Amino acid sequence: MTKTAMISGITGQDGGYLAKFLLEKGYKVIGLYRRGATDTFEKLKEHGILDQIEMKDFDLLEFSNIARLLKNYQPDEFYNLAAQSFVAASWSEPVYTAQADGMGVLYILEAIREFSPKTRFYQTSTSEMFGKIQEPVQSETTPFYPRSPYGVAKLMAHWMVTNYRESFNVFACSGILFNHESPMRGKEFVTRKITAHFAEMVTGKTDKPVELGNLNAKRDWGFAGDYVEGMWLMLQQEKSDTYVLATKETHSIREFVEEAGRTAGFDIEWRGEGVDEIGVDKKTGKTVVKVNPQFYRPAEVDILLGNPEKAEKTIGWHRKVNFAGLAKMMMEADIERAKKGIL
Ligand code: NDP
Ligand code: GDP
Q1: Residues 298 and 312 in one domain
Q2: Which residue has its alpha carbon closest to ligand 2 atom 13?
Q3: Which of 225, 233, 105 is nearest to 175 (CA)?
Q4: Residues 114, 229: one domain?
Q5: How confident is the model at residue 39, as a pLDDT?
Q6: What is residue 1's predicted lDDT score, i.e. its pLDDT?
Q7: Does 268 lie in the same domain as 123?
Q8: Which residues, in sequence order, are CB contacts of 306 under 8 Å at separation 6+?
């Protein structure tokens, strides 16, 4: 029998990769998107899958709509990827972030409990919940210490998932996902901001350097295409649970700049310190990176490093792409787009 999967946040980075993965497995995919005045389906078009998805209106803040969708479709699986996902924006929109990323998840859990109790639910939790890290390597048992309204809101949702599993026997999984990127990553996130800007530089569209904030922060960066497989694997198990998905490697923003720069043809040397630091391409003497304190955050997550051992051993998940491969993939994709004028 054909399985039905509902994906909220279908227009985002992970939504496209997950929809493609599930369509290839023969699922009927119902994509939930926010109605807006402009076309937000670019990523699904680029994946070439828009016409294979049944698209329905959805907003995390509208309980009646969520309840109706679950009542009408009774999907086998519901993947909640929708969120105000940009940490930096969560300080300027803390109330909305808490409502969408915290309460929105509760609405879905309530609708499942009430109207579609057989639906298996996946929630995208985040390594931002570890924030000011309490252990050098973070796993499912590491205490949380979120550092942004985003992290706090996601932590509420994470505990709601655990609570609905334990209280009402809802099959609800939480994936604590460390940063994952791809050529489909939003340009406000640091990796894609760097690759998109470097692509404009190499194709002669700009000669200005990319302006970044804290170059010393370190992240455990994986490839989104690998992580969506982990989401699906979680829902195929006998019991619902919480799993960390990570690469077990951590790299600084500076290292990502160097790695992406290599593919773009830059040989970057760092000069100066703090707000005066610049990255210079040794070959041309051109400044390609500059620090702008505007991109510093009110509270920073200095370093994240995840341990995916439980997911590897229990559900058989293994990431395939490493840090260097990810930076190269993103840089090459953006140079291609810049050449075609579609960046
Ligand atoms: P994106 O920002 O690319 O996508 C977010 C999606 O959520 C978009 O489709 C967006 O729609 C939708 N959305 C936002 N607000 C609402 C709302 N109020 N109602 C309905 N839909 C809404 O995120 P990613 O694909 O990168 O991430 C997917 C999920 O994983 C998110 O929940 C994120 O917080 C979480 N996560 C991501 C990590 C990462 O490194 N990528 C790490 C850990 C967790 P629209 O197109 O209209 O804006
Ligand atoms: P996050 O880990 O979900 O917040 O993902 P981001 O890609 O937005 O940020 C990752 C890290 O890069 C954070 O520590 C930021 O402070 C740091 N960073 C440095 N410069 C920038 C910048 O210009 N934009 C963004 N988004 N982050 C930056």
Answers
A1: no
A2: 217
A3: 233
A4: yes
A5: 78
A6: 87
A7: no
A8: 127, 137, 138, 139, 176, 178, 220, 244, 245, 246, 247, 248
Q: Which atom of ligand 2 is nearest to the CA of 292?
A: 23
Do 207 and 165 share a domain, yes or no? no
Q: Ligand 2, residues 190, 214, 227, 297: which to mutate, most atoms within 8 A of Cβ?
A: 190
For ligand 2, atom 5, name the residue with the nearest CA.
189
Interval 229-254 mean pLDDT: 98
d(CA 186, CA 182) in angstroms, rounded, equals 9
Residue 98 pLDDT greater than 90, yes or no: yes
Same domain, 115 and 145: yes
Split into its structural domains, the chain has a count of: 2
Determine whether the shortest distance from the Cβ of 14 to ligand 1 is under 6 A.
yes
Same-domain status, 286 and 157: no
**Ligand 2 neighbour 338 (Cβ under 6 A):** no
Distance 33 CA to ligand 1 centre (A): 11
Q: Report yes or no: 99 and 149 within 8 Å, Cβ to Cβ.
A: no
Active centre residues (catalytic): 126, 128, 150
Q: Are 226 and 159 contained in the same domain?
A: yes
Confidence of residue 113 (pLDDT cuts 50, 70, 90): very high
Could you give the CA distance from residue 173 to residue 79 in angstroms, rounded to a whole number?
10
142 lines ligand 1 (CB under 6 A): no
Q: What percent of the chain has pLDDT over 90?
A: 98
d(C-alpha 56, C-alpha 34), whole Å: 9
- By residue range, what is the domain housing residue 213? 190-217+252-302+328-340
| Ligand 1 site, residue 119, Cβ cutoff 6 A | no
Task: Give residue 155's pLDDT.
Answer: 98
Provide the whole-model pTM.
Answer: 0.98
- Domain with residue 135: its CATH number is 3.40.50.720
Residues 281 and 243 grouped into a single domain: no
